[in-house]
Amino acid sequence: MIHTKRYYCNTYEAGGRELIIEGPVEPERLAAMTFDEGLKAFRVPEEQQKALVEIAELPEGRIIIARDGDLVLGYVTYLHPDPMERWSEAKMEDLLELGAIEVSHKVRAAGVGKAMLELSYLDDALEDYIVISTEYYWHWDLKGTGLDVWGYRKIMEKVMGSIGMIWMATDDPEICSHPANCLMARIGKRVQNDRIMRFDQVRFQNRFMY
Ligand SMILES: CC(C)(COP(=O)(O)OP(=O)(O)OC[C@H]1O[C@@H](n2cnc3c(N)ncnc32)[C@H](O)[C@@H]1OP(=O)(O)O)[C@@H](O)C(=O)NCCC(=O)NCCS
Fold first, then answer.
1. How far is the CA of 128 from the centre of ligand 1 (A)?
2. Residue 2 is assigned to a structural domain of this protein
3. Nearest 5 degrees, angle CA 143-CA 146-CA 148?
4. Residue 182 sits in which domain range?
5. Which of 28, 66, 99, 172 could serve as 74's disulfide partner, Cβ 3.0–4.6 Å?
6. Is residue 141 part of a domain?
7. 4Fe-4S: is it a keyword of this entry (predicted)?
């Protein structure tokens, strides 16, 4: 499969700033930018920047960012699922994971998360993919928002739902380990039935139980 990536760019106003929402961003450009101190949900900003540059270098990797000048205030990542997780077992070239989405506190709850996802889907190439997002409550910023798991889950449903991602059942033990965790997915318009059936087999591996 050839991973076609088409670049798009928009402006978006949030928190009194005129942001550029753009991507997929080339690794060299991303490396030259600065990550805002508020981008620390998963790692310190500098480490996260390095990790994102590596994703941007992958043939299938896509990084969409929100920036004010050279200051990155938000990002979304797309790449093949982690080899440690069941989603990679089928080695589906057309399966991408929306691996992380983060927006700095400075511009949160102003639509930036949804705007980055909307921009991702301006690229019609994503209609050839099944895109999943595994929602684990231990990745959420419960402390920073003061929300409980259900309040936070609602945000994630709104953010992911804005690009047509829907909740999908699975018997994956990690997802099933807490009721607020969930699998969300969007099946691209050009994905063929046999690929969807393959994905169904990945979602359910213990059918004898049902
Ligand atoms: C999750 C996250 C990316 C959302 O980004 P965001 O730019 O703040 O989200 P948006 O502004 O696009 O908001 C989406 C919806 O959630 C709502 N929302 C966002 N933050 C909220 C909050 N703290 N309380 C209540 N509602 C909230 C918005 O009002 C909006 O609702 P609407 O669709 O009805 O208008 C951001 O909170 C974040 O970076 N969190 C830390 C990292 C994380 O948890 N990532 C997810 C796991 S990978």
1. 27
2. no
3. 95
4. 8-205
5. 66
6. yes
7. no
Strands (E) located in 69-181 = 71-79, 95-103, 130-135, 166-168
pLDDT of 208: 60
**Strand (E) or helix (H) holding 150:** helix 149-161
Element (H, E) at 145: helix 142-145
The structure tokens listed for 155 are: 């945000």
* The total number of structural domains that make up the chain: 1
13, part of any domain: yes
The secondary structure of 35-81, three-state, reads ECCCCCCCCCHHHHHHHHHHHHHCCCCEEEEEEECCEEEEEEEEECC
Confidence of residue 206 (pLDDT cuts 50, 70, 90): confident
CA of 114 to the centre of ligand 1 (A): 8
User: Cβ(108) to ligand 1 under 6 A?
Assistant: yes
Residue 41: what pLDDT?
93
